[in-house]
Amino acid sequence: MKDSLPEHVFNYLEARDDFNLGVEPVDGSDAAAMTQLVQSQKYPLGGAFLLAATWDDRMFFSQEQSSFDRSFTAKVGSYNALAAAVNIDSLDFLISMSSGTIFGNPGQVNYTR
User: How is domain 26-111 classified at the architecture level of CATH?
Assistant: First the structure.
């Protein structure tokens, strides 16, 4: 990665005194846990990446209401928990992502609700 754009970006961010990038695991759908995480930060929260993860891949005809609910709760629940912990409008950015693919994954139909 020597002299690459990502290296320059990370070097720039690390050199800033007013910026702190951290990765913190939390049950995103737990409003109390999310609030505790936000309040425990040394600096004011400027933005967030919500990277919700659930593993319940199934083909379409194998889906049940409970499998849809598990995925939905992880994704939407983490947003709702963050909204309970911080004023979303005060953030500089909010990026939410739960899965990514180029060609699609037939077992991830429950992520498209």
Answer: 3-Layer(aba) Sandwich (3.40)
Higher pLDDT, 24 or 104: 24
State how far the Cα of 23 lies from the Cα of 33, in Å rounded to an integer.
15
| Cα 98 from Cα 113, distance rounded (Å) | 12
- Per-residue pLDDT tens digits for 29-86: 899 999 999 999 887 888 888 887 777 777 777 778 887 787 778 788 889 999 999 9
Domain spans of the chain? 26-111
- Is 98 a residue whose pLDDT tops 70? no
The sign of the dihedral angle between the CA atoms of 21, 22, 28, 33 is: negative
Q: Which long-range contacts (CB under 8 A, 24 or more apart) does 86-89 make?
A: 86/38, 86/45
What interhelical angle do 31-39 and 65-85 show, nearest 10? 30
The torsion angles phi and psi of 96, rounded to 5 degrees, stand at: -120, 130
